[in-house]
Write a structure and sequence with these properties.
The complex is a heterodimer of chains A (650) and B (1070).
Chain A: H1 2-25, H2 29-33, H3 50-61, H4 96-102, H5 125-138, H6 147-172, H7 198-215, H8 223-226, H9 232-247, H10 275-294, H11 313-326, E1 333-337, H12 343-349, H13 372-377, E2 400-402, E3 416-418, H14 426-431, E4 432-434, E5 438-439, E6 453-454, E7 476-478, E8 487-488, E9 495-496, E10 502-506, H15 507-522, H16 526-538, H17 544-551, H18 561-575, H19 582-588, H20 592-595, E11 599-603, H21 610-613, E12 616-621, H22 635-640
Antiparallel strand pairs in A: 1-10, 2-3, 4-7, 5-6, 8-9, 11-12
Helix pairs in contact in A: 3-5, 3-6, 5-6, 6-7, 6-9, 7-9, 9-10, 10-15, 15-16, 15-18
Chain B: E1 2-8, E2 11-18, H1 21-42, E3 60-68, E4 79-82, E5 85-91, E6 97-103, E7 107-111, E8 118-121, E9 130-131, E10 142-145, E11 148-151, E12 159-161, E13 185-188, E14 200-203, E15 217-220, E16 223-224, H2 227-232, E17 238-244, H3 247-250, E18 261-266, E19 272-287, H4 296-310, H5 320-328, H6 340-344, E20 349-361, E21 365-377, E22 393-406, E23 411-426, H7 431-439, E24 449-450, E25 463-465, H8 475-480, E26 482-500, E27 508-527, E28 531-539, E29 544-549, E30 560-562, E31 566-584, E32 588-603, E33 615-628, E34 632-643, E35 652-663, E36 677-691, E37 706-718, E38 724-733, E39 742-755, E40 759-776, E41 791-813, E42 816-833, E43 856-857, E44 860-863, H9 867-871, E45 887-889, E46 904-905, E47 914-924, E48 927-937, E49 940-942, H10 945-948, H11 952-955, H12 960-964, E50 997-999, E51 1002-1013, H13 1016-1019, E52 1026-1039, E53 1059-1069
Parallel strand pairs in B: 3-9, 15-18, 25-28
Antiparallel strand pairs in B: 1-2, 3-6, 4-5, 4-7, 7-8, 10-11, 12-17, 13-14, 15-16, 17-18, 19-20, 19-53, 20-21, 21-22, 22-23, 23-26, 24-25, 26-27, 27-30, 27-31, 28-29, 31-32, 32-33, 33-34, 34-35, 35-36, 36-39, 37-38, 39-40, 40-41, 41-42, 42-47, 43-46, 44-45, 47-48, 48-51, 49-50, 51-52, 52-53
Classes of the chains: A mainly alpha (650), B mainly beta (1070).
Chain lengths: 650, 1070
């Protein structure tokens, strides 16, 4: 049997083996490797539908630096705010980045707040500019969109492109201007761009904003969907601000940078002061204000609510001030950034256990402290600086004083605190929290009940020092950041916060810029006083003229250009306190060398008794030199592109 | 109860319980007579030389005989073939007997692995008895090479075959045994954590600086495998282990082989009696060294010192009261001093390994079935109050069945099934994380847990220590709060067909293989959220306190679960090989081969659309060899390969190679000295090999751009109350259709020398140039605003090196023998073309000409003496203030400040350039002893200051050595081990610099083993063939200049330490 079977079986097997193996092996190899299907997304897919194009526009917006996010903003980089220890543990949501600049740690190897390169979660602004350019290249071809809408979106991208250039210009001075994108395949020499003179950078930014303003709607059409996007008013206001920067001493005829030039000899700063720049700036400010007012914008005033009852006039004035930036989209806000969250900022600014029953609630951190230098800037109740008020005891400001019933809306009755905290203007009490100070809101809203929270910040008291965080190292809180209806839960780690968008441009800012530009261009005038006084009126202060005439040691100060300049600068610093303006203002005024070369001081937070607590303690010896006016370029960037010149001093 | 199983031809024939001595004697009788019985009953099954198939072989006669070893014991399974007619052949049966019909005047060739082949002419004989002698020289061995085997004496390429016995170390991870065993392999191990202790290994160094694949191609039974699969392989199951190193050896694998190839085949069953082999081991494993930490009181004092060092306004972190209370030790709850390491870890762990394999078979089918089980435990403690086990417990099982079936005399079918299963149970975040957490937790802030006091006696949960209003981590809580299960399953099915095509032309064979494997794994984590308590209202007078829970809202007493990770992938592989091998006129030996393969892998959990597409390779390869008279050899290989990763026009690469060899000792003129220099052979090869796995594993299709159409990171929201929100769109890769293969040009020259057939020395000199290395364009400045880096095949590197291996063996008598093995590899590499800025003024920054892993850093001169010294030195702006006691760097470019431009190459490369090993084994009667030493040299590593910086991360502990030697104002030691203390990461001191650079060279007493084989007399009554009992140990001793931790862990000294293992085992063969 087997003899018959085997050979036939073998043969069959051989045939089987060959017929199975060989065809399998020689299937088409070309097809086998062709596995990528056709519809893989490419950048063109972003511009085939209006909805995807809009998402690309959102991408362009996403690069706006979140200025309320402490690790990415300059809020902590000057002397406006201070922290208890260096560094705060990471769980405090404050990175070293921002504070390092205040502490003098800016450097060329790994620059802090490096918006040029965008490391560590920072969005590199050159990338943002490239995205704007890509958007501009494609938007006009998107099918299914009206020409008007295409132009409007293009204008938004131009606005953002201008903003990003401006942001870099403020930080780095003369920067390269990226009008159109270079192709990916550009040669090594093509990609090496040069820095442009500051004047041409400014003029390009202004040109972009003019182009944008032409195609933007005055206000957004659908507030529920679009607030936060660029408008014509935003473009005009930004242009006004940009022009004020251009006219300011840092950029306008700055002698210190006279010799600063590219390798090919192009001077990057003009040596001549141009008064016309102030005139242009003033005109732009005027136009922007006019347009805003015509569109219904006005300085914010608090409207009583069902919740906030029986308000004293003091409390109402304080809410007028506190809510300017914290009340979402109020009548004063021209442009705000909804993507810049304020939740962490409010947590850091709210005193721990403000409600003493909420001791278990560690969400309010109360770390963000205001140095004494800043608290000193606020006026007396008469609207003049504390060292200029004839009626205010400047020499005895650190003495102890007991509050009386007449202070009850500002300082708790019978509380002993420094004389420094008495008889100050409403913005002092609205913007700052301090030992003995009344803290309106946060769950307690009825002035008649006299049960407002009282901050008690000495050791052993509720907000006193314990451990290394959770207390104000200087004795002052930045109350301005905290929306008044936020409520901390007593039992759980719940702090219900009202997340407001970060205000980028507001009418009050424009008023002050206008006053400044007018005074610089033409000297004191009624227009200057008018805009200053409207700001002061909201803060419950008398007019400049009245205040100085009545209370100042130097009554005629406001009548000279230089005197008025000082008054405008101080007014602006107080009004815009903690809004991230002082850091840049001190630079553009070229006063930073004086301002930032002083010790940072505070009350002695480690003390239990008032007499010991109210002694001035030096926290840090801050320094600032000429080179600090601008960021350094990262060493590596200069190595890669040897046409870039480093900023002087770095 | 004992069973006697007798198998014939794969069929289980008799199963008898042996009940008594008497019965066993009877059985032995049966056993003896069975030889005749079996031979007879098998007869019809022998394949008769069919006259129809082989008409020329008419004149035949039958030859029978017995094959024995030198002691006269019968040898089953010896291959007996007719010379030049391999189709006529058989193997010896269980009793060493064979019967074969042979043509008249045929020459019979008797061969078996481990024995010298013998040829005997049958002319006129009907019975041929043969005594085979054991192979004295390794030259006769066959070596597994790409898609086949070659005789060692015919090798042209650089191939090392590893003695599998050397890989039997007391570890359930095979990769840990590789270091120092193989000339040309650079290997080191950085962690000792079970399941994560795979060693890193590279063949002839890391030759590419691309981010793609740099480790070798690993093929197990011809199928590409992962490092973990190699790690789980049982040495008992390995038949051969070859390492292919140069171009001709690897060219057939074309695109996949640029980094060398490791080729492993598993055992197959051999015709013969059933063989059972059992190995059982039990081992104790413990860290080779533990980092010494400062005591809690020193910790507090130094923490205070650190706080004041940099901020004179700072207040002390720990009060005197606290420090004094801790010193007194009176109240350990109020003043805790927790030794977290003791709290968490045991001194040693117990591990077990079992391996059982059964093999045998007959003429129709042969089988090899093996199973293994290993259990590796971690050193973590388990809290008895939990009812689950949070210690590391890695159970690994494998099951392997290799079955060969002879369908016809010329067709063989082979089925390989392999299952590989890991069950891991362990701490939630892994063992290394626990080691890290111990070091990162302050010893004095809270105890691990509070004993339940009267106020809390009703509680069901453990009262873990914690800190209110502060983030903290309690390592003990994190360890015992839950556990994690991982499961990994690899199933592999493989079908092979071997077809002898000599009916077409003599010497032609066809081999086809199909393989599929399925890998899946998942993790389940179960945990409760611990209740943390803080001690409050402590009264020093009464020692009363109260415990306050502060996370009641979030803590749970019950377990919750989550599924962190799961993955699944399928691979399919198809290969067919046509082989031709023939010798003409006894002198001209030709061989040729063509291989076609295709493979496809697909992953079930891709992160993107592009990754969801299959990875594919396809290739046609060939080899041709010709040798003349065993003296002159030539070989030509090519690989023509395609990869799905590249654009159509760049998809295929052609990789040719050739080699020449000359066996000088086979020349006539060598005859006079051949007794002394028994072997002298030179060989050389040159060729190209490719690599398609360039770039990161999750980064394929460089010719396609990749756009994230849904990028939340660049999204935003708008509207009064954020009513509109959308994601953004980002380009994550720019397309470049030009990107293609990375190509290696490899050259190799080898010399082999043998003396007295006892000492063999092999030396290989090699060099290679890597071209087309994928690199990021460095010339593109940030102002371009690109959202992804642009890459191109622009890099080029070169490497060269030398490797030596030597082995010596001497049999002093049949009871006493000595073996010495040594190898040495020196491998260097350097950048030839590297995308970098043009460093005109700072040429020292250029990578060109430097080793690929050359560290770059600052030259640390010393610590600053005082503030005057700081003021008078170039400013060092790294973002932190610099004070006395910080590291002072050298201003290389003399520009008056310390910047990145002052970095220079420092130290040796971080991959060792020299790896060597030396082993001795010695046997006397039933005893055998072996030792193995292994070392690396010319390696540097960094102590990573940021990972050992004390007091950061909520209170990291301080290493005792740093506590003992650091700069203080009282002791201004400018060469102290640690600079001035700081409570935060100090950017100035943390720069990569010579301050932190250490020499990574070491010499290890890697392994020692003593074994005792039971005298055969003892076994006579047990049916055992042999039994060996042994004790061995790894990592016994280490010589190194670095003392803080085990130097082999490199900069990662605070991870899971490398383990020292003491092991006892028994190996029984039936």
């Amino acid at each position: 049997m087997k003899k018959f079977f085997m050979p036939a079986f073998q043969r069959r097997l051989r045939v089987l083996a060959l017929s199975v193996v060989l065809p399998l092996a020689w299937t088409s190899c070309k097809k086998y490797l062709d596995i990528v299907p056709d519809n893989i997304a490419t950048i063109d897919n972003a511009f085939t539908l209006p909805s995807t194009a809009e998402r690309y526009l959102v991408t362009c917006y996403s690069f706006i630096p979140p200025e309320s996010d402490l690790p990415y903003s300059t809020l902590l980089s000057g002397d406006d705010l201070w922290l208890p220890i260096d560094p705060l543990p990471t769980y405090e949501f404050v990175a070293d980045e921002c504070w390092g600049i205040a502490l003098g740690r800016q450097n060329v190897n790994a620059p802090l707040l490096d918006y040029w390169n965008g490391p560590l979660g920072i969005s590199g602004l050159w990338e943002g500019i490239r995205d704007c350019n890509i958007f501009l290249e494609h938007i006009m071809q998107v099918p299914g969109m009206s020409n008007v809408q295409q132009k409007q979106w293009a204008a938004e991208a131009k606005f953002l492109k201008a903003y990003y250039h401006f942001y870099l210009l403020r930080m780095y001075g003369p920067i390269p201007v990226i009008k159109t994108n270079l192709p990916i395949s550009a040669s090594t020499s093509e990609v090496k761009v040069k820095r442009q003179p500051v004047d041409s950078v400014f003029s390009y930014i202004v040109q972009l904003l003019d182009e944008a303003a032409a195609d933007l709607p005055v206000r957004v059409t659908d507030e529920n969907q679009e607030l936060g996007r660029a408008t014509r008013l935003a473009a005009m206001s930004l242009k006004a601000k940009v022009l004020v920067y251009e006219a300011s001493p840092l950029f306008n005829g700055n002698d210190d940078y006279a010799g600063f030039a590219n390798k090919d000899g192009t001077a990057l700063f003009s040596g001549e002061v141009s008064l016309d720049k102030w005139k242009t700036a003033a005109q732009a400010c005027g136009e922007a204000i006019q347009a805003c007012e015509a569109a219904g914008y006005s300085l914010y005033r608090f409207q009583p609510t069902a919740q906030a009852q029986n308000l004293s006039s003091e409390t109402t004035t304080k809410l007028n001030i506190r809510n300017i930036i914290t009340e979402r989209w109020n009548s004063e806000i021209i442009w705000a950034n909804p993507n810049s969250t304020t939740v962490y900022l409010q947590r850091q600014a709210t005193p721990f256990a403000l409600d003493p029953a909420a001791k278990a609630n560690a969400l309010p951190r109360g770390n963000l402290s205001v140095p004494l230098n800043i608290a000193s800037l606020f006026y007396t109740r008469h609207g003049v600086p504390i060292d200029e008020d004839r009626t205010w005891n400047y020499a005895g400001r650190y003495d102890l004083r007991t509050a009386t019933d007449s202070d009850k809306y500002e300082i708790a009755n019978n509380y002993v605190t420094a004389a420094f905290n008495f008889d100050r203007e409403a913005r002092f009490y609205a913007d700052l929290g301090f030992d003995g100070g009344i803290w309106y809101g946060q769950g307690v809203y009825d002035d008649n009940k006299n049960d407002n929270w009282v901050v008690q910040a000495k050791v052993g008291q509720t907000q006193g020092r314990q451990g290394v965080t959770l207390f104000p190292i200087t004795g002052y809180y930045a109350k301005k950041y905290v929306y008044y209806t936020n409520v901390m839960s007593t039992s759980a780690n719940v702090y219900s916060m009202y997340d407001y968008p970060w205000v980028e441009l507001r009418l009050g800012d424009l008023y002050l810029l206008y006053a400044e530009a007018l005074n610089e261009a033409d000297g004191p005038s009624t227009a200057v006083y008018q805009y200053l006084d409207s700001i002061r009126a909201r803060a419950g202060l008398p007019d400049v003229a009245d205040a100085w005439d009545q209370y100042a040691k130097d009554p005629g100060k406001y009548k000279t250009q230089a005197g008025l300049r000082e008054i405008i600068h101080r007014e602006r610093t107080i009004e815009m306190a903690f809004e991230g303006q002082r850091f840049w203002d001190e630079r553009r005024w070229k006063t930073a060398v004086q301002t930032y070369n002083n010790p940072i001081t505070g009350w002695d937070a480690s003390q239990e008794n008032a007499s010991a607590y109210y002694r001035v303690k030096v926290l840090y010896n801050q320094t600032f030199s000429l080179k600090d006016y601008f960021w350094p370029l990262r060493q590596k960037d200069i190595t890669v592109n040897d046409l870039l010149v480093q900023n002087p001093g770095w | 109860m004992l069973f006697l199983a007798v198998t014939v031809g794969g069929w289980l024939m008799v199963v008898l319980p042996s009940v008594s001595h008497a019965a066993r004697n009877t059985l032995r009788l049966m056993h003896a007579s069975r030889a005749v019985l079996l031979t007879d009953c098998w007869k019809p099954a022998r394949f008769p030389r069919s006259t129809s198939l082989f008409p020329e072989a008419l004149a035949t006669h039958e030859v029978r005989g017995l094959v024995t070893d030198s002691s006269g014991a019968p040898l089953p399974g010896v291959t007996v073939v007719v010379k030049n007619k391999i189709s006529i052949g058989t193997t010896t049966d269980l009793n060493g007997r064979y019967i074969l019909e042979v043509p008249d005047n045929a020459v019979l060739v008797f061969s078996m692995v481990g024995f010298d082949t013998q040829e005997i002419a049958t002319a006129g004989k009907t019975e041929v008895r043969v005594k085979l002698l054991p192979t004295r020289s390794v030259l006769g061995e066959t070596v597994v090479v790409a898609f086949g085997t070659q005789k060692r004496s015919d090798m042209v390429g650089a191939v090392t075959s590893v003695n599998v016995a050397d890989l039997k170390t007391p570890s359930s991870n095979l990769t840990t045994a590789l270091a120092g065993r193989i000339a040309g392999m650079i290997a080191f191990q950085r962690s000792g954590e079970p399941g994560k202790d795979n060693a890193n290994f590279f063949i002839r160094g890391v030759a590419s600086f691309g981010v793609g694949k740099v480790d070798p191609l690993m093929l197990i039974d011809g199928v590409e495998s992962s490092v973990t699969e190699l790690a789980r392989l049982q040495p008992d199951d390995i038949a051969s282990f070859s390492v292919l190193k140069d171009a001709t050896a690897t060219a057939l694998y074309g695109s996949r082989a640029a980094n060398g190839v490791i080729l492993i085949t598993t055992k197959e069953g051999k015709e013969g009696k059933v063989k059972i082999s059992l190995r059982a081991e039990n081992s104790w494993s413990m860290p080779t060294s533990n980092v010494k930490l400062a005591d809690p009181v020193t910790y507090m004092k130094l923490y205070n010192e650190a706080a004041l060092a940099r901020d004179p306004f700072a207040s002390a972190i720990y009060t005197h009261e606290k420090i004094d209370g801790t010193i007194s030790g009176q109240d350990p709850l109020a003043f805790p001093a927790t030794d977290w390491r003791k709290m968490l870890f045991k001194d040693y762990a117990l591990n077990q390994r079992y391996n059982l394999n059964v093999s045998g078979g007959g003429k129709v089918a042969r089988y090899y079935v093996a199973g293994s089980y290993s259990k590796d435990n971690g050193v973590l403690r388990v809290d008895h109050r939990n009812n689950f086990n949070n210690n590391i417990d890695l159970k690994s099982y494998t099951l392997r069945a290799n079955v060969n079936i002879s369908l016809t005399k010329t067709t063989e079918l082979e089925v390989r099934l392999n299952g590989n299963f890991d069950d891991y149970e362990g701490p939630l975040s892994g063992g290394a994380a626990m080691y890290n957490e111990v070091v990162n937790t302050s010893p004095v802030d809270f105890p691990a847990y509070y004993p339940a006091d009267s106020a809390h006696s009703y509680l069901n949960h453990i009262m873990f220590g914690g800190l209110r209003n502060k983030t903290f981590s309690n390592p003990y809580a994190d360890m015992v709060k839950g556990y994690q299960n991982n499961s990994r399953t690899l199933m592999l099915a493989q079908l092979e067909v071997n077809q002898d095509l000599s009916f077409l032309t003599s010497g032609l064979t066809l081999h086809a293989m199909m393989n599929t494997n399925r890998l899946s794994s998942f993790e389940v984590a179960r945990q409760y959220a611990p209740f943390y308590y803080d001690l409050t209202a402590y009264d020093p007078a009464t020692k009363q306190y109260s415990l306050l829970n502060f996370n009641e809202e979030t803590a749970t007493e019950y377990l919750d679960y989550n599924l962190p990770d799961r993955s699944q992938s399928n691979a399919f592989y198809l290969q067919s090989t046509l082989n031709y091998d023939r010798t003409f006129n006894e002198k001209h030996h030709f061989s040729g081969m063509l291989v076609y393969y295709m493979q496809s892998t697909i992953n079930a959990t891709p992160a993107s659309l592009q990754l969801s597409l299959a990875s594919r390779n396809i290739g046609l390869s060939g080899r041709g060899t010709y040798s003349y008279d065993n003296r002159y050899y030539t070989e030509f290989n090519f690989g023509y390969n395609g990869s799905e990763r590249f654009y159509k026009s760049r998809r295929f690469g052609f990789f040719p190679s050739f080699g020449l060899a000359w066996s000088v000792s086979n020349e006539k003129f060598w005859q006079p000295i051949s007794k002394v220099i028994s072997n002298f052979r030179v060989r050389g090869t040159y060729g190209l090999v490719g690599n398609d796995q360039i770039g990161a594993a999750d980064d394929r299709f460089f010719y396609l751009s990749e756009v994230n159409m849904n990028d939340a990171a660049h999204g935003g929201h708008f509207g009064k109350d954020d009513a509109y929100s959308a994601s953004g769109i980002t380009v994550t890769r720019y397309s470049n259709p030009e990107i293609t293969w990375e190509v290696a040009r490899k050259a190799n020259v080898g010399v082999e020398l043998g003396f007295f057939n006892q000492l063999n020395i092999k030396a290989d000199f090699y060099s290679q140039v890597r071209k087309n290395i994928l690199m990021t364009r460095a010339s593109i400045p940030t102002t371009m605003g690109l959202s992804a880096s642009v890459r191109a095949n622009v890099g080029e590197s070169s490497g060269k090196g030398v490797e030596f291996s030597a082995d010596y063996q001497q049999f002093f008598s049949h009871q006493t023998w000595l073996k010495i093995l040594g190898n040495f590899t020196y491998s260097t590499d350097k950048y030839k073309i590297y995308e970098e800025p043009d460093y005109k003024t700072e040429p020292w920054l250029s990578h060109k000409g430097l080793a690929l892993s050359q560290p770059m850093g600052f030259i640390a001169e010393r610590l600053f003496v005082d503030s005057v010294d700081v003021a008078n030195s170039p400013p060092q702006a790294f973002g932190s203030s610099v004070i006395a006691g910080d590291i002072k760097y050298k201003d290389i470019n003399k520009d008056g400040e310390i910047t990145d431009l002052d970095q220079v190459p420092i130290g040796f490369p971080t991959t060792p350039e020299i790896v060597y090993g030396l082993g001795f084994s010695f046997g006397y009667k039933n005893f055998d002893v072996s030792t193995f030493f292994q070392g690396v040299a010319r390696e540097s590593f960094w102590i990573d200051p940021a990972s050992v910086q004390p007091f950061v991360n909520g209170g990291r502990q301080i290493i005792k050595a740093f506590a003992d030697s650091h700069y203080t104002t009282d002791n201004q030691d400018i060469y102290a081990l640690w600079p001035r203390l700081s409570t935060v990461d100090n950017a100035n001191d943390n720069q990569l610099s010579t301050w932190w650079l250490r020499n990574g060279a070491f010499l290890r007493f890697k392994q020692a083993e003593i074994g005792w084989t039971l005298p055969s007399g003892w076994l006579k009554r047990t049916h055992m063939q042999s039994t060996r009992i042994y004790v061995n140990a790894t990592n016994l001793l280490e010589i190194s200049s670095f003392k803080l931790w085990d130097v082999e862990m490199g900069g990662n000294g605070l991870g899971y330490p490398i383990q020292r293992v003491i092991n006892m085992g028994i190996n029984v063969n039936f």
